[in-house]
Amino acid sequence: MAKVLAALRNNWKKSTFGACLLGWGGHWLYGKHCDNLLRRAACQEAQAFGNQLIPATMPLKKATVFLNPAACKGKAVNLFEKNAAPILHLSGLDVTVVKTDYEGQAKKLLELMENTDMIIIAGGDGTVQELHANVNLLSLCVQAAFSKIPIGFIPLGKTCTLSHTLYPESTNQVQHITNATLAILRGETVPLDVLQIKGEKEQPVFAVSGLRWGSYRDAGVKISEYWYLGPLKTKAAHFFSTLKEWPQKHQASLMYLGPTKRPPEDLEDKSSRPPFYVRLYRRLQSYWLSPEEEPEFPQEVASKAWEELKLSTIELSIATRNRHLDLRRTEDFMDICIEEESISKEEFIHRGSQKMRDPLMCPEGSQCIQASRCILRLPEGTEGSFGIDNEEYEAMPVDVKLLPRKLRFFCDPRMREQMLQAAVQ
After folding, report:
1. For the range 80-85, what are the long-range contacts, defined as Cβ-Cβ under 8 Å and sequence gap of 24 or more?
2. Category of 253 on φ-ψ map: left (φ > 0), alpha (ψ -120 to 50) or beta
3. How many C-beta atoms lie closer than 10 Å to residue 50's C-beta?
4. DSSP secondary-structure letter at 402?
5. What angle is formed at CA 15 by the lines to CA 10 and CA 18, rounded to 5 degrees?
6. Among positive and negative, which fits the CA dihedral 70, 76, 80, 81?
7. Among 197, 305, 341, 389, which is most exposed with the fewest C-beta within 10 angstroms?
8. Taking phi first (over 0 means left), then psi (-120 to 50 degrees means alpha), and beta for anything else, what does residue 315 get?
9. Using H for helix, E for strand and C for coil, what is the string for 89-143?
10. Quick one: the chain helix, strand, coil %, rounded to 5?
11. CA-closest candidate to residue 361, choices 227, 206, 230, 212
């Protein structure tokens, strides 16, 4: 023993390094063990669903999983197969996994969605909005034939804004994924709003979170370039942004309509569904044929109903109320946040870090507007990009329309109960 202590004392640098390495290795192994315990507990709960008896004439529920292998920096497939797939299969669902990694999949997606009981999206915010360059999933889901199909969301990425509404917070990724998958099996759903964002010539883009345009968004997309600065990369990206141009102003004109009264819940359509081939033909026709052009300003609304203002801001955001879901509210609207432009560089850097945690936050001193529809006009020659559900699009004049309670998403029963209690209070 004395010789061992003497050796450690004489080689204290190596001993210290070895102790640190051993401690880190032990912590890593313990974390892996805890993750396996979480997976095992989730699988046991899923098996209870799978062991339930059903009538012999009742077919198995079909679930279609849309998984983009390129999502989450290429880790989506491994995360899904390790944490979520076993739970889904043990639950007794007839699971079909679609990997959207090639072009020309629109026809196949329509066929699958025509014959499924639930849609499951596995990925980050971008996967919800856009499965592939030519496949916009939300544009398919909001169609009348598909909007009644419940949607499950399994968060696999780091930017999963939607998961904060649907599931409890968790710092453990495995627990977060397994909780989301089990919530799908429990069957509780909540209605979520959708934004229809239409450019002058482009097909509409749909979003469940919102649209951002401004300096914070532009600086945020460049944070990865400063990876070598570690925890200082966020502040560095916003600091270097102030050196290029200051003050940073984004000018535009905005026309908007106020909130609309929420109608009573739509009655379930109990009419018999047409044959499969008829539904498939209609869906293919609606997808491939371009919709009729809408007038730039709706003629059915009196001009006096529109409010107009000129804005100059450091950032503009148009967001749904899905982050602060109120199941009992009587009006439907989206939140438009116009942030003040006159702030210091220090405040810009500090607020930029807050924006990374909550991209659609509306800081104190901003102008907040509630609207059911808005038209954003940009000056000619405006450059830059929009961020729509964390996906980048060219900045252009757009018509943003709220589609209230358009889709139903599975959620954790505890979150739904909290929403109802908050609404009563």
Report:
1. 80/122, 80/154, 80/156, 82/39, 83/39, 83/174, 83/177, 83/178, 83/181, 84/122, 84/154, 84/177, 84/178, 84/180, 84/181
2. beta
3. 15
4. E
5. 160
6. positive
7. 305
8. beta
9. HHCCCEEEEEECCCCCCHHHHHHHHHCCCEEEEEECHHHHHCCECCECHHHHHCC
10. 40, 25, 35
11. 212
Please state, in angstroms and rounded to a whole number, the distance separating the CA atoms of residues 236 and 219.
Answer: 9
Asked whether the beta carbons of 151 and 410 are under 8 A apart, the reply is yes
CA dist., res. 210 & res. 194, Å (int)? 9
- How far is it, in rounded angstroms, from Cα 37 to Cα 43? 10
pTM: 0.78
Phi/psi-derived region of residue 74, left when phi > 0, alpha when psi is between -120 and 50, beta in every other case: left
pLDDT in tens, 157-208: 665 667 788 888 888 889 999 999 999 999 899 999 999 999 887 788 888 8
Are β-strands 385-388 and 391-394 bridged in parallel, bridged antiparallel, or unpaired?
antiparallel
Contact 128, 71 (CB under 8 A): no
d(CA 349, CA 279): 52
Distance CA 96, CA 63 (A): 6
The per-residue pLDDT for range 102-112, each reduced to its tens digit, is: 544 555 666 66
Gap between the Cα atoms of 243 and 345, Å rounded: 10
Query: How far apart are alpha carbons 35 and 304 in whole angstroms?
Result: 59
| Residue-wise pLDDT tens digits, 341-365 | 888 999 999 999 988 888 888 888 8
The b-or-e profile of 278-292 (16+ CB within 10 A means b, else e) is ebbebbeeeeeeeee
Alpha carbons 350 and 359: distance in angstroms, whole number? 13
Domains, the chain, with CATH or none? 30-46+59-187 (3.40.50.10330), 210-263+304-405 (2.60.200.40)
